[in-house]
Structure formats: C-alpha cells, structure tokens
Amino acid sequence: MMLLRHCERLFKHGHCIKRLLHKSPCRPYTIVVPSVIGGKSTDRERVMDIFSRLLLERIICINGQIDDQMSSIVIAQLLYLQSESWRDPINLYINSPGGVVTAGLAIYDTMQYIDTPISTWCIGQACSAASLLLTAGTEGMRRALPNSRIMIHQPSGSAGGSVTDIQIKAEEMLKMKRQVNDLYVRHTKRPLSEIENLLERDKYMSPIEAKEFGLIDEVIEKPPAEKSSNS
C-alpha cells in the first residue's frame, strides 16, 4: 500500500513510471523503468523514460533476448539517429544472451546499411546473435568491459512435420549457418575453416580472448574521453 501511495504521488506531481511486464515460466514479474527529467525543451520540464533520454545522447541498449519486437525497436532507433545526424557516432550497448537469428540479422543489416559510425560495447554478455552485433560495429570502435563475456556458436533450431518439411528446414538452417560463418569471417578476418571449427560448439571468450580473436578492438574500463582527461 505504501508503494501504491508513493506511485500515486509521483503521478500527481507530473512524474511517470513505465512498467515492462516480463513473463517467466514460474511467475510474471514487473520491472520498473525509471523516468528522468531531461530533453531539449526549455519551456518546461520534460519527463521521459531513461531509455528515451539515452536515445537523445545517441545511446541504444540491447538488453535481454533478441526477438522480433526488440529488433523492430532497435532498427527504428538506428534509422532515427541516422536521420538526425549521419556523422555523429551511435553507441550500441549490448547485454544479451542472443535470441532469434533472423531478428539479429535484421539489426545487423541495418547497422551495415546506415552510414553512421556505430560504436559497440559489451556489458555483461554478448552471446550467440548478440556477439555478431558486437563484432559488426565500426572497426576500431568495438569494445568490451573487462568482466564481460562473449560467446559464439552456430545457429540452432528444431523442425517438425513431414520428412519433406524437415528436409526443407534443415537445408535452410545449413544455409543460415554458412551465412553466419561468412559474417564472422568478414569482421574477424579469420580463415573460414577456423570459424567453422570454432562455431561447431559454444565457444566462450573473455574480452582479452575476444580481442585477440578479432571480435572486438579494445577492452576498456573507462569512457575514452574520461580516460584521456585523467591521464
């Protein structure tokens, strides 16, 4: 009841709280997305959710499973920031276990399509499709924090139905596997044979290992500007 009264007071004074409902196999739970005051309006205070405020600073967050809904939102944000300025870099912060391959490839294609430099950051983890997005950033601008982890592997899926249906889906999965392998070759500059062997099973890497492999360019603890100003 105390929390409810507190929320009512916030709404009464013009503040807002947005909730995202995440479904769990055990029980649904609610994550409260903080709201902040900010924006470019000088006439009055603007209240917006934290992710919208970060978008004004050209920051996009990929958190959690990559699915079609997240893909649509991230693509829209990329296109919006491209339209605002194609010169200023976009910062893409990734903390994701991966997800649907086609949803990840849709984000990947948009990243390659726009002219804007994209700086990718791994915070926490970038696994499966998320690792592809991490390495797809602009060369020299792909970074990971020291305690994050990166995992690469081949696409996975299941098939059912008639034998013919299963064969069609299996052929499509093999085609997608070759496609993903080629993308890792493109961004890591590693031989195809090495990529194929490595992606046969889950391959976890520390940030240092990911840098040596060519997935990222730098392991970093502080933002570049802050780092240079302290030195």
TrEMBL record:
Superkingdom of this protein's organism: Eukaryota
Any GO molecular function: serine-type endopeptidase activity
Record: active site: S128, H153
GO annotation, biological process: protein quality control for misfolded or incompletely synthesized proteins
Species lineage: Eukaryota, Metazoa, Spiralia, Lophotrochozoa, Mollusca
Cross-referenced SUPFAM superfamilies: ClpP/crotonase (SSF52096)
Keywords linked to the UniProt accession: Hydrolase, Protease, Serine protease
Protein known as: ATP-dependent Clp protease proteolytic subunit
